[in-house]
Amino acid sequence: MNFLQLGMLLALPLAAVPVIIHLIHQQRHRTVKWAAMMFLMDAKRMNHGIDQLRQILILAMRVLALLFLIFAVSRPLVSGWLGLAMGGAADTTLILLDRSASMEETDVASGLSKRETAVRRVADALEKGVRSERIVLIDSALLQPVEIQQPSDLANLPQTGPTATRANIPGLLQAAMDYAVAQKLGNAEIWLCSDLRTGDWQPDSGAWESLRASARELPNLRWRLLTFPDGSPDNLGVQVEAVRRRELPGNSGAELLLDLEVRRQGQGPATLPFGLVVNGVRTVSEIPLEGDRQKIRGVSVAVGRESSEGWGMVELPSDRNAMDDRAFFVFAPEAARRSVVVAESEKIAAPLLAALRARVEPGAAYESDFVALSKVAQVDWDAAMLVVWQAALPAADSLEAKHLNQFVQSGRTVLFFPPDGPDANRLFGISWEDWKTAAREEQQVAWWRTDAEILANTGDGKALPLGELKVKRFRAVSGDGLILARSADGAALVMRGDVARGSALFCGLSPDPGATSLAADGVAFFVLLHRALAKGVSAGARAQQWEAGPDALGDGTWERLGSAGEALGAERGLQAGAYRSGERFRALNRPAGEGDPERLDSAELATLLAGFDYRVIEGRAGEGGALANEIWRSLVILMGLALLAEAILCLPPAPDPAKRRFESAA
Q1: pTM higher than 0.70
Q2: Which of 110, 112, 145, 147 is surrounded by the fewest CB atoms within 10 Å?
């Protein structure tokens, strides 16, 4: 509970005035024994307990009436179910705002999204509460602290606007703790507004352990979670996974082939209308749906033969979240899909080269070259889209490590396989452990991530046959990256490094036939390599599909296609759309995982935030109730009820029968 007039609580000792008056009143009367009254006093002792209880209740009602009056004048605040400012006023208030695309689910009646509702309710709470000396906003898209002068300014800031991004909640919490340490904050209160999407909270991330440790070292931080756990039951979402252009026979022109993924939170078959826009020309079509998640391959869109490059958009019918009803794409003539294999020997490189040169996309050219470790300086880093590295990791300060870092930061992919000899180096925060001999060859790959990333299920829902591999020996992967596969004894076999852009993938299963059957079995090996290549192609091609983010448009002068509106400054790249810079095209969309409707439950949230001093307030989009409310009116009513009860207790009691008999006898 908080108070707007805290100084009025100094009057609380006045509540003792009725007790003091009662004690003084008892001392005013001198007891005189009178024989004629002895019979009456004996009769009165029979009701002494009831009279004493009535006097105590009268005194209690008078004390409560004064207490309610003092509290009402001090103007107390309460918030929701749990109290807004437990533990005293904060010197600094930090607002952590989830600006991910899923926070744009709106309430039909009010038209307010979860994000807008969160901003309004927190601003209202700060307006009504005891104002902190400093109010700071950190949003999930930029992770930069911004000081706010007035709570009413929150709704007008670009840092509280909608984005097509995905939130990194562990990174958001870390940014708040870093700010608290850097500014040496004393008593601080932190408001975190989120819809608890599992993809945003990343419960499998290794960052949570260090966050919990930091929370225990910062007991002065009080965390308030304003959550929106309810989802829209009929939401639709679309994602463009790939786009290809091919010439039609004769003079029929050309067509675009789109691979789409449609999500819906509903069951049973349905026919869904959708719109297609290509270079400003709109057409309408229909697609059949079954289940809540469906991949649709090869949706054909006819274009003129002269339309060799451009942009497009897929539109679904409007629903409660407009952010996932559109997906943009771009297309242009494609260069050769070039990869480079750096290996210790040509024998190990041979199956890698054979798989990478195989044609997957009709009409696309595939090129792959072998480069010995001693001739790494000859690699054409600008032309390559994928580098497969089967050799010892280069030292962190070496020229090779510098090239690999720049290669990944450009958005392309490096896939590492373990070297045969010892390797103590570390790259992208990951290193190799010693070779381990498998106790039995079968089913050494016990778990792998099937919902996303490079080992996900195929388009028809089938899992990769990793569990069928025969493994004689392997090297576990050690580091802070995202684990994508584990061995039977729990060791990490496949891991993705934590890099800002691009992909650094480490696979502890060697393509050497003397170590595993990875190359011989073929299917998982082929899919692994070509998915890694596809990641690199998306960054090296003229037409690129990118996830929206603060750095998505930071490498050129980009013109938005099909729309005059464009965000400026740090907000560039946070909105979905199609862009052009010279001969390059780039489509920005929300991340694929942002469409996953799974949310954390209370038990999972408690596990992640163990060690945090936190309270949870659940909300709904469009909800207008204030987080903090004054309750002085209720206290005045309670004061009146106490005075009424005191008056009733003071009414004369019914005549005592013993007293009536005494008076009759007299």
Answers
A1: no
A2: 147
